[in-house]
Amino acid sequence: MKISQFSYTIRESLKNLWRNRLMSFASMTSVAATLLILGIIFVLIINISSLAQGAKDQFDTVQVYLVDDLDGSQVDALGERLYGLEGVKEIYFETKNEALSKMKLEWEGNGFLLEGLEENPLPNSYIVSLYDIGYAEYVVEEINQLPGVEEVKFYQDVVVKIIEVTNYIKNIGMVIIFILVAISTFIIHNTVKLAVNARRREIGIMKYVGATSWFVRWPFLLEGTLLGLFGAIIAIGILYAGYAYTYTLFTSKFYVLIAAYLVSTQTIVSDLLVIFIVIGAGIGALGSLLSMRKYLHV
Amino acid sequence: MIRMLGVSKRYSNGMLAVSDINLHVKKGDFIFLVGPSGAGKSTMIKMLLKEENCTKGRLFVDDTEVSHLHRRLVPFLRRKMGVVFQDYRLLQNKTVFENVAFAMEITGASPREIRKNVPMILSVVGLADKQKCYPNQLSGGEQQRVSIARAMINNPPILIADEPTGNLDPETSWEIMKILKQINRRGTTILMATHDKEIVDIMQQRVVALESGRIVRDELGGQYGYED
Q1: DSSP count for chain A of H helices, then E strands
Q2: Number of continuous H segments (helices) and E segments (strands) in chain B
Q3: Which class for A63: exposed (0-12), middle (13-18), buried (19 or more C-beta within 10 A)?
Q4: Which string of DSSP letters, residue by residue, matches B124-153?
Q5: Nearest-angstrom CA–CA distance, B139 and A240
Q6: Would the CB atoms of B150 and A206 count as touching at under 8 Å?
Q7: How many Cα atoms occupy the beta-carbon half-sphere of A144 within 13 Å?
Q8: How would you list the strands of the sheet with B64-65, edge to edge?
Q9: Would you list the DSSP string of A131-194?
Q10: B52 vs A contacts (CB less than 8 Å)
C-alpha cells in the first residue's frame, strides 16, 4: 500500500465514523453489549471452574475398606482390579497399622487413648485417587460390586452436588452464550449492512471512477475494526469496574470461604482483554467485509 | 482508440441487446451515439466500462482487449476513460473539491499534486468558487460540470458521456456541450450517448445510430434523424 493510500484510508475511515456517528454509535454499542454479556458469562464460568477445581483437589480420593480376613494374594488381586478401573489415577494400600498410627497422629494429645486397645480395630484399606471427580460415582459403584470390599467411603454428597451445580451452570452458560452470540451477530451484521447499504451508491461511484476493490474496502474495513475495538474497550471497562467491585465485596465482607477460590481481577481482565480485542475487531472487520461483498462487483 | 469487432451482448434473460457491432473510433473523434430507448446505447457504454461483458466478438480500448480483461484490471481500464452520467453520480457527503480529488486519490497521487490540479480543472469547468460546496448546494448544470471535472482530472484519452444533458434545460445543456467541445479540441476522444436532437443537429459531428442493437447509420456531420 502506498503512503498516500494509507493516509487516505485513515482519513477516510475516521471521517466516515464521524459523519455516520449515529450508526457508528449503534454498532459500537451492540458490540459492547455482546461482549459484556459474553464477558459476564465467561467470568461466571471461570470462577465456578476455579471453585470446582478447588473442591475436586480436596475430594478426589475414595477410600475402600477391606474385609478383615483377606489373605495377601486376595488383597493384591483386589488392588489390581481397582487400578484397572476407568478414571483411577493411582492406588495406595494402607495397612491397619498405618491407619492406626495415622489416627494417633490426628488425635494428637489424645493419642494415648488408643494405646489401650488390645487389637487394632481398623481395617486395611485402599486409597484410590481419581483423575477427575466426574468418575467418582462410577468408580464407587464398581468398587461396591467387588468381592472383599467392606465399605467405600467418599464425600459423596459434596462431590455429587459440586458436579451437579458445575454442570448445570456450565450448560446454562453455554446455552445463553450461544443464544446471545447468535442474536448479537445478527444485530451487528444488520447494523453494518445498513451502514454499507446507505453507502451503496458511493461504493458504486468509486468503482466507476476506477477505484480498485481494495481501495474501497480498506476504509470500511478499518472503520468496522475500529468500531469493534471501541466496543471491546467499553465492555472491558464496564466489566473491570463491575468485577473489581464484586471481588472486593466478596473478599472483604462475606463468604471468605468462596472468595479464596475467586479468580483475581487482574487475571480475569488480562484474559478478557485479549479475547475481547480479538472478538471485537474480528466481528467488526468480518461484518464490514461481509456486508460489502455484494456491492463491490460493479 | 476504441474498436469493436462483431460485438454482441445477450443478457442472461435471453434478450439480445446489441448484435454484431463493428465500430472504429479514432483518437480525437467526437461521436454521438443516438437511437431510441432500448436500442443498445447503454449496453455499449456498459461494455466499454466492463460493467457488462460482451458475449461475442472482441472489444478493444486503447489497445487493451476489454472482452478478455481480468476482473482485477478493470479499475485500470476505467482510469483510461472519464465517465459522465445523466444523474451526475457525485458523492453527496463530499465537497466539490473532494469529489474531484477522489479520482486522483485512487491513482495514488500525492496531496501536493491534488492541491495543485483540482483547482485548475475546476476553473476550467468554471467552478473555481464552488470548491467547498456540497453537491446538493449546486444546480444540475454545476453538478454536471463537477462530474466532468472528475472525469477529466487524470487526463484520460477517452471521455464517455451517457446522456450528460438529459436532466438539464437547453441553455445549461449548451454550456456543458461547450465544455465537452473544448475538451475534445485538446485531443480527448469523446463518445456521447444522447437523445438531444438539437445538440446533435447543430454540433455536426460523427453520428452513430443504433436500432434494436444494430448500427443502422454511421456518418460524419450527421443529423439526429429521429422525431421524438
Answers
A1: 10, 4
A2: 7, 10
A3: middle
A4: HTT-GGGTT--GGGS-HHHHHHHHHHHHHT
A5: 55
A6: no
A7: 9
A8: B16-25, B2-10, B56-61, B64-65
A9: S-GGGHHHHHHHHHHSTTEEEEE--HHHHHHHHHHHHHHHHHHHHHHHHHHHHHHHHHHHHHHH
A10: none
Residue B149, min C-alpha distance to chain A (Å): 12
Residue B35 one-letter amino acid? G
pLDDT digits (tens, 9 = 90+) for B43-90: 999 999 998 899 999 999 988 899 888 988 999 999 999 999 999 999
Task: Say which of B83, B91, B110 has its CB closest to residue A202.
Answer: B91
Residue B172 to residue A100: CA distance in whole angstroms:
112
Write the pLDDT tens digit of every residue in A94-126: 888 888 887 777 776 676 777 777 777 788 888
Confidence band (pLDDT; 50, 70, 90) for A288? Answer: confident
Eight-state DSSP code of residue B40 = S
CA–CA gap between residue A275 and residue A267 (Å, rounded): 13
Q: How far apart are CA B128 and CA B133, in angstroms?
A: 11
Nearest CA-CA distance, residue A32 and chain B, Å: 28
Q: Does A295 touch chain B (CB under 8 A)?
A: no
Q: How far apart are CA B192 and CA B162, in angstroms?
A: 6
- Reduced to 3 states (helix: H, G, I; strand: E, B; else coil), residue B157 is coil
CA quadruple A226, A229, A230, A231: dihedral positive or negative? positive
Write down the pLDDT at residue B121: 94
Contacting residues of B for A204, CB less than 8 Å apart: 89
Interface test with A, best of B70, B84, B106 (most A CBs within 10 A): B106
The three three-digit cell numbers of residue B171, written as one number = 441553455
The distance of B137 to chain A (nearest Cα, Å) reads 18
Question: Does this model's pTM top 0.90?
Answer: no
Contact B75 A212 (CB under 8 A): yes
Neighboring chain A residues of B147 at a CB cutoff of 8 Å: none
Quote the crossing angle between the two packed helices A3-19 and B96-105, to the nearest 10°: 140
Per the listing, cell 460493467 goes with B51
Residue B102: Cβ within 10 Å count:
22
CB A273 within 8 A of CB A236: yes
Instruction: Say which residues have a Cβ less than 8 Å from residue A114's Cβ, sequence separation at least 6.
Output: A100, A103, A104, A107
Residue A267, H or E segment: helix A265-296
Dist. CA A126–CA A241, nearest whole Å: 49
With helix as H, strand as E and coil as C, how does A2-47 read? CHHHHHHHHHHHHHHHHHCHHHHHHHHHHHHHHHHHHHHHHHHHHH
